[in-house]
Amino acid sequence: TFLLNVKCLSNNKFENHSNFFKINRTKFINYLLYPTLTSLYPKFTHANTTSWTKVDLPVDSVLFDIEFTDPECKHGWLVGSKGTFLETDDGGNTWVPRTFANLDPDEELTYRFENISFEGQEGWVIGKPAIILYTKDGGKTWFRVPVSPKLPGEPCLIKALGSESAELTTTSGAIYVTNNAGRNWKAQVKETIDSTLNRTISSGVSGASYFTGNVINVIRNSEGKYLAISSRGNFYLTWEPGQDFWIPRARETSRRIQSMGFIQNDNQKGIWMSTRGGGLSVSTKNFDFESISSFNFENIDIKTGGYGILDAAFVNDKDIWIICGGGIVYNSTDKGKNWTKVDGIDKLSGNLYKIKFVNNNKGFILGSNGLLLRYQ
Questions:
Q1: Most C-beta atoms within 10 A of its C-beta, which of 29, 35, 278, 346?
Q2: Strands (E), 172-234
Q3: Radius of gyration of the chain from Cα atoms?
């Protein structure tokens, strides 16, 4: 049996508990059969002779995030709904399931791990119901960090910064930083997004006045700058370190915003935006986060048949991947001038939600029903 020690962090001290991550026996048998099972799955070939390969997983849950702990991207973690917590030591070819040993099956299914982040061997995981886990040894031992019931909104994004430090964002736009492994958190913004919007009624953002919702699809780039989309998709917001408040920005199209992100995780490269019905556009490079003016976007011509673009990955200056509703994947190798549909993926059982390249040569697509695709 594989065991991972779990500890609880409370009252500013680490306290030992008899909690362990362990492998379910049935799932372990599936793990032993991986070499046979994975050889049966098809490869979906890309024009450059590389391909997407379906990875067999012993879960049927929705997958939310994937992260690796080493520069070679060999050891990593995969998280999802129904308490899904998987580990790999071979770059994502095979995955070992981990579960809370002290939770009964019904209680375990209530946890939905949505985001994971590592900086070296230090890692953080957040999920719902509100839970924060912290490790400082690559995942061998996990500490549970208390979550205050007074926290505005629910944790939705966490970024490991190393040296017991992390940055946490909530669905209300609150941003906190810890420098002591979660014992204390310091607020980075003076008020939540709804307070900012309701205070600045004359901001010129349509639909922002008397805002009572949350934000979705919060994205942070390598410089610590943020994008966030309102829950209704009618406007978006930006924030960068040093600012007291989020800045709301109106969309420049009648279609509601579906998703956004930083191009190559770099503010200097610009940002991309997808809108309902399959629209895709990119901003001018090196936009000013201090300006209250809307950013200028240029449309990218792509025909998705009306399917919305759920996520995109700008691997380099030319190579772009997008995933759409219906399990459809498109690729462009010329900055979006021409697009090629990857055949066969849309016939798989499951929807696709997230695409993430951990380096220029290795990427993953995460979906429902335990659907994981690996590109290398």
A1: 278
A2: 175-178, 186-187, 215-220, 226-230
A3: 21
